[in-house]
């Protein structure tokens, strides 16, 4: 991804893609002092741009990092980088991080908080899973307690176990992994939230120790508008057997049907297809 043409917005300026570099003593690289956003632009409109910018600032606050740009300025940076790359349908990655500076130990308050925004074309996150359902592994790593990490933040440090879980899943021919939380409840996938269907009602883990995704919140709203009951609750592993349908939600994943989790199978059913279609309509509206 580094050596190519294009522009990246870095600390207030558009720079050449291949020149958007940081120093090796960047604090974030050593201590994960970094928060980011994943967003999508559809037909020239960024879906929930302000909500994503606000979440970026909030994630920063949770890590003692005030992002030195307002929601409006972050929104404008995203628009600028899309225009500079001539893209109307793209994935957008904004990242705020502690740079190199006075501190090169654990503390970093004297190092500048920097912001970069890049965008690129990114199609379906799970390939052809949209039609036949993604195959998920069961991760050995557990989502940690909110007393262990600021689990509400979209922070780089929270992804270490996600990357390891996804590598293990891919080695087994799966697209992703479903993670349990520190208590043993079903939590989410490595970069997407999870939903289940049983007897016409929807069940999704209560977002009390993982990212309460904007797509998750959007889909819950859509389901309630459709008069479908949604239960946000703790889900035990033994319940997996009884669920009929399953899907993942996320900015990159959008609404992706799941066909299999470990030894459990799910059908790509009517409700899954309906939610996926309605979500597509909404983001392109
Ligand atoms: N959980 C994790 C760990 C994620 O990385 C993401 C993607 N940002 C999500 C959930 C879904 O969040 P959103 O719908 O806001 O993209």
From TrEMBL:
<keyword id="KW-0808">Transferase</keyword>
<dbReference type="InterPro" id="IPR043131">
    <property type="entry name" value="BCAT-like_N"/>
</dbReference>
<dbReference type="InterPro" id="IPR036038">
    <property type="entry name" value="Aminotransferase-like"/>
</dbReference>
<dbReference type="InterPro" id="IPR001544">
    <property type="entry name" value="Aminotrans_IV"/>
</dbReference>
<dbReference type="InterPro" id="IPR043132">
    <property type="entry name" value="BCAT-like_C"/>
</dbReference>
<dbReference type="GO" id="GO:0008652">
    <property type="term" value="P:amino acid biosynthetic process"/>
</dbReference>
<keyword id="KW-0100">Branched-chain amino acid biosynthesis</keyword>
<comment type="similarity">
    <text>Belongs to the class-IV pyridoxal-phosphate-dependent aminotransferase family.</text>
</comment>
<dbReference type="Pfam" id="PF01063">
    <property type="entry name" value="Aminotran_4"/>
</dbReference>
<protein>
    <recommendedName>
        <fullName>Branched-chain-amino-acid aminotransferase</fullName>
        <ecNumber>2.6.1.42</ecNumber>
    </recommendedName>
</protein>
<dbReference type="InterPro" id="IPR050571">
    <property type="entry name" value="Class-IV_PLP-Dep_Aminotrnsfr"/>
</dbReference>
<dbReference type="InterPro" id="IPR005785">
    <property type="entry name" value="B_amino_transI"/>
</dbReference>
<dbReference type="InterPro" id="IPR018300">
    <property type="entry name" value="Aminotrans_IV_CS"/>
</dbReference>
<dbReference type="GO" id="GO:0009082">
    <property type="term" value="P:branched-chain amino acid biosynthetic process"/>
</dbReference>
<keyword id="KW-0028">Amino-acid biosynthesis</keyword>
<dbReference type="GO" id="GO:0004084">
    <property type="term" value="F:branched-chain-amino-acid transaminase activity"/>
</dbReference>
<comment type="pathway">
    <text>Amino-acid biosynthesis; L-leucine biosynthesis; L-leucine from 3-methyl-2-oxobutanoate: step 4/4.</text>
</comment>
<comment type="function">
    <text>Acts on leucine, isoleucine and valine.</text>
</comment>
<keyword id="KW-0032">Aminotransferase</keyword>
<comment type="pathway">
    <text>Amino-acid biosynthesis; L-valine biosynthesis; L-valine from pyruvate: step 4/4.</text>
</comment>
<keyword id="KW-0663">Pyridoxal phosphate</keyword>
């Amino acid at each position: 991804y580094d050596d190519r043409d294009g522009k990246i917005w870095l600390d207030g300026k558009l720079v050449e893609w291949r020149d958007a570099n940081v120093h090796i003593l960047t604090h974030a690289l050593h201590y994960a002092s970094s928060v980011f956003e994943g967003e999508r632009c559809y037909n020239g409109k960024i879906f929930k741009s302000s909500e994503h910018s606000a979440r970026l600032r909030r994630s920063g606050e949770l890590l003692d990092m005030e992002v030195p740009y307002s929601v409006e300025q972050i929104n404008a940076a995203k628009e600028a980088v899309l225009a500079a790359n001539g893209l109307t349908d793209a994935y957008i990655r904004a990242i705020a991080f502690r740079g190199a500076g006075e501190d090169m130990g654990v503390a970093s308050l004297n190092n500048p908080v920097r912001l970069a925004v890049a965008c690129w074309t990114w199609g379906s996150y799970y390939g052809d899973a949209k039609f036949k359902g993604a195959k998920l592994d069961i991760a050995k790593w557990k989502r940690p307690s909110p007393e262990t990490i600021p689990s509400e933040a979209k922070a780089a440090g929270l992804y270490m176990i996600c990357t390891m879980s996804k590598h293990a899943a891919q080695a087994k021919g799966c697209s992703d992994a479903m993670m349990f939380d520190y208590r043993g409840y079903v939590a989410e996938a490595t970069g997407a939230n999870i939903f289940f269907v049983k007897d016409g009602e929807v069940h999704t883990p209560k977002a009390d120790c993982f990212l309460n995704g904007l797509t998750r919140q959007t889909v819950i709203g859509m389901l309630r508008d459709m008069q479908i009951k949604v239960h946000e609750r703790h889900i035990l592993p033994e319940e997996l057997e009884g669920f009929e349908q399953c899907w993942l939600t996320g900015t990159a994943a959008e609404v992706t049907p799941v066909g299999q989790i470990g030894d459990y199978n799910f059908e790509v059913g009517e409700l899954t297809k309906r939610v996926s279609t309605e979500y597509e309509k909404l983001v392109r509206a």
